[in-house]
Write a structure and sequence with these properties.
This protein has seven helices and three strands. It has a three-stranded antiparallel beta sheet with strand order 1-3-2. The N and C termini lie far apart (43 Å). A hairpin with a 7-residue loop joins strand 2 and strand 3. It comes from Cypionkella sinensis.
């Protein structure tokens, strides 16, 4: 390290550490609910993403759910066996894996919705609705800085 460079920020004020602590503060509230439904955080993100669409290419699911492609590949079989998602080959391109939410996955979304809503409401009450909305918009803008890099996501074939 050169004598001219400023010292590194203390970890409390380092952006990556602050983001990790904030994520942990939020997820600590959600983990018990997910555990009660026998689902982990990554599986829940896949269910949430697929609950918003008819079907998606597996690579796009990985990107939208913030899951590494190899991790999603490992999860697909287990989630399919549990009846949470459906897997099919793309009719126009047999190399592409298309995923969709299965009836049990949709039922899980509906079962979790009341608890999830209550957690979000408590977070907003604790942090403030306006601050929560502003934080989400700021985090979206920050994440959007990485968009060009998302095109380099490994293929799931």
């Amino acid at each position: 390290m050169s004598h001219d460079s400023p010292p590194p920020r203390d970890t409390r004020h380092a952006l990556p550490m602050a983001l990790l602590r904030a994520r942990e503060a939020v997820m600590t509230r959600f983990r018990p609910m997910l555990a009660a439904h026998d689902i982990n955080e990554q599986q829940w993100r896949v269910i949430r993403v697929l609950g918003e669409v008819d079907s998606l290419d597996a690579t796009e699911v990985a990107v939208r759910a913030n899951i590494l492609a190899p991790s999603l590949t490992r999860m697909i079989k287990a989630m399919t066996e549990r009846g949470l998602i459906s897997r099919a080959r793309d009719a126009s391109d047999g190399r592409r894996v298309m995923l969709s939410i299965a009836p049990q996955g949709r039922a899980l979304l509906q079962a979790v919705a009341p608890d999830s809503t209550a957690i979000y409401q408590q977070l907003e009450a604790d942090y403030g609705p306006a601050r929560t909305a502003q934080l989400i918009e700021m985090l979206i803008a920050l994440a959007d800085l990485a968009e060009p890099q998302l095109d380099k996501t490994p293929d799931l074939n």
